[in-house]
Amino acid sequence: MVAFLIRKFIKNHENIKDPKVREAYGRVTSLIGILINIVLFLFKLLCGVISGSIAIIADAINNLTDAGSSIISLISFKLAGMPADEEHPFGHERVEYVASMIVAFLILFLGLQLITSSVEKIFDPDPVSFSLVSVIVLGGAMLAKFYMYRYNRKYGQLLDSSMMKATAADSLSDVWATGSVLASTLLSSLLRFQLDGYMGVIVAVLIIMTGINLIKDTLDQLLGMAPSDELVKMIADKLHTYEGVLGFHDLIVHNYGPSRQFASVHVEVDSKIDVMVSHDLIDNIERDFMNDCNLSLVIHLDPLVMDEQTIMMKEEVREMVKGIDPSLSIHDFRMVPGTTHTNLIFDVVVPHKFAMTSAQLLKEMETRIHVKHSDFYLVVTFDHAFISERKPV
User: How far apart are the first and last CA of the chain?
Assistant: First the structure.
């Protein structure tokens, strides 16, 4: 049904990079979510009141909260689709992250409220009457929520939407939560023991866990995460296709929303090439990344001295550094010969959780280099990678 509505009502639905298309996807999925959750709330509330089950009522209120979450999602997609302005030159797509955080806190608050009422039911249980209608409603609710999980996960991955992914996770937890309520309804009458309060606690715990996980995931987005393996590999592969690019380092990616990314990188070129030729190469690369990948890439030009002695010494230093720890890497290597000594000037990229301090690492490198070159001095700048060490470059 969702796929049909998307094809029917979203013009150019294949162009998911267009903010207006993203907004339309969010509008369709949110409206469907609001409708499903309101229907589920009304049916569950009616069943809960008739049967006297706190667990069913709790599950009904959970659906009402989900409807509110879908309304927030609808508003967030509308705001995120607003164009950039003077006060927000990078656009408004991060509104989606803020909305996801609001939803997460609402879910957490609801879970805490429900766990309180469920614990009270454990110590002061009320009789719960078995109802075939309740079983049918709860079973149908599980199917409806699983359907919501499927389409929100599908389009959340397609659009890289934190809001849709959050809704998908919430819907899946609702499947298990409603399943526990259904089990309570069936088992309580068979065992002649009131499981209602206990199942209410299970529902509340599932809701709280969903809220905590959503807060963590959304907070990661707001704080700024390392780029994905796929994005790093795409950038690396594309840079290596250009004749004249000898290598690159210091890749930094800034995320201002799912379809709003900026990046900077240092690209290495032969110092013997005319600077105007290299500058033209850089301009072409930046333009291609914008046109082909919708990525605003700013490139810093690093000219490398490519004489035989420098190349050999760079490789020797690289192997020496790798011998200390394979996770270390070097760049911006230069040799400056003098009458009494030679300076080796370079940067070392150190992992964030590296065991040695910068002073300890420098001392170890000096000890190793002086075994073969006693008149060589090291001038080292230590920095940290902005991409994870596991990512290919």
Answer: 42
Cβ(278)–Cβ(291) under 8 Å?
A: no
State how far the Cα of 39 lies from the Cα of 67, in Å rounded to an integer. 10
Cα gap 382→358, rounded to integer Å: 7
Tell me, what amino acid is at 280? Answer: D
Contact yes or no for 66/37 (Cβ under 8 A):
yes
CA distance 252 to 393: 12
**What dihedral angle (degrees, nearest 10) is formed by the CA atoms of 196, 140, 43, 74?**
110
Sheet of 376-384: strand order equals: 329-337, 342-350, 376-384
- DSSP annotation of 373 reads -
Amino acid present at 40: L
Q: Where does residue 315 rank: exposed (0-12), middle (13-18), buried (19+ CB within 10 A)? A: exposed
Name the amino acid, one letter, at 215: I
Q: Quick one: tokens of 367?
A: 């000890």
**Cα 280 from Cα 284, distance rounded (Å):** 6
Residues 6 or more apart whose CB falls under 8 angstroms from that of 84 comprise: 90, 91, 92
DSSP at 93: T
The model's pTM: 0.65
User: How far is C-alpha 219 from the chain's CA centre?
Assistant: 9
Which residue is associated with the tokens 């259904």? 182
Q: Which token pair is 214?
A: 């959503």
Locus of tokens 């690492």: 361
Name the helix (H) or strand (E) containing 345.
strand 342-350
- pLDDT tens string, the chain, 393 residues long: the values are 788 888 877 888 888 777 788 888 888 999 999 999 999 999 989 888 887 777 788 778 878 878 887 888 888 888 877 888 888 888 788 887 888 788 788 778 877 877 887 788 788 776 656 678 888 888 999 999 999 999 999 998 888 887 888 788 878 878 877 887 788 778 776 776 777 778 778 778 877 887 888 888 888 878 877 788 888 889 999 999 999 998 888 888 888 876 678 999 999 998 889 999 999 999 999 999 999 988 899 999 988 887 888 889 999 999 999 999 998 999 889 888 888 899 999 999 998 888 899 999 999 999 999 999 999 999 999 988 777 654 544
